[in-house]
Design a protein that fits this description.
With 88 residues, the protein is mainly alpha-helical. It has one domain (7-50, 63-87). The protein has helices at 7-26, 28-45, 69-74, 77-87, and strands spanning 63-64, 67-68. A two-stranded antiparallel ribbon has the order 1-2. The N and C termini lie far apart (60 Å).
């Protein structure tokens, strides 16, 4: 039987990363509040999470309309997008 790790372990493993992202997005003044709100929301949802739930893969490049960011820049798509935006 698979059991979930204690929520404290989740905070210990992911807390620094979440704080770093909060600081990058919101700045140092609001980062601590955003970090707290993030983990309060996660704590509320945690009991409903299945024990066999897998962590999301964060090492995989984001894929959007242009594929991955690496593909987008390699294909020169960013240059065409920039040129279109400059034309107005």
């Amino acid at each position: 039987m698979i059991s979930k790790q204690p929520f404290e372990t989740v905070v210990a493993v992911h807390g620094a990363t979440v704080l770093r992202i909060c600081r990058a997005v919101l700045g140092p003044a609001d980062a601590d509040d955003a970090w707290s709100e993030t983990f309060l929301s996660a704590l509320k949802a945690y009991p409903a999470l299945p024990a066999d739930a897998k962590e999301p893969r964060t090492n995989k490049p984001a894929r959007g309309r242009h594929g991955s960011m690496v593909e987008w820049t390699a294909k020169g798509s960013w240059q065409r997008s920039w040129q279109r935006s400059c034309r107005g």
